Amino acid sequence: MEVIRVVVIGAPQVGKSTLVKQFVQSAAPGRPACSLSDGCPRHTYFPAVLLNSRLFAFRLHDVSGVRRFPAGADQEWSQCRALGLRSAAAYLLVFDLTCADSFRYIRAIREQMLESRDMQRVPVIVVGNKRDRVAARDTRDCRDFSATVRKQWKWPYVECSAKFNYRVLQVFRELTMALDALRQEELAPATETSAAAARSAADGGLCGHCAIQ
């Protein structure tokens, strides 16, 4: 079974670790699923999600201390060889809805990601955490965050409260749906080729314009 590597990035104290732990406990209640990495600022979890009769096995890397996304392999190795930021299959970018600086952090990370690797077929879900702490005065900022992510970046966006486990599953549902959509796109050409071959075989190997003399 393919294991999908997902990296979770966010500024300190945005609640990304709580988000991951809430999801892992929901996916496998009471079952420890954490393994510490070898000297790097990362925790790794191994949950799984069932969607459309397909099991998605994840390797979730909750990383900390990421000052910038590595520009190349040499820079990544010098930062920490085991993080593997540039080779992840998908990303969660987490920020605190009540802290504009944490949003600016993921904005900078996003720009560095786009400069570092081809992101055309790499799902990224942006997560606005601490929805329970949003006061009336913060609602305008929340709308601005949402508009930036959805309209300008054109990435999926979910607001949640990891502390109260509110919409945590929705975050990972969006992630799984994005990965499933990519899989369907990859399977489509193969399916069309197989169908064409089947039609050709049914016609005795003749194209539609051929006739038996």
TrEMBL record:
As one GO molecular function, the record gives: GTP binding
PROSITE patterns linked to this entry: RAB, RAS
Q: What Pfam families does this protein's entry cite? A: Ras
InterPro entries, per the entry: P-loop_NTPase (IPR027417), Ras-like_GTPase_Reg (IPR052661), Small_GTP-bd (IPR005225), Small_GTPase (IPR001806)
Taxonomy, superkingdom: Eukaryota
Q: Which SMART domains match?
A: RAB, RAS, RHO
NCBIfam families per the UniProt record, alphabetical: small_GTP (TIGR00231)
- Fetch the PANTHER family from UniProt: RAS LIKE FAMILY 10 MEMBER B, RAS LIKE FAMILY 10 MEMBER B-RELATED
Record protein name field: Ras-like protein family member 10B
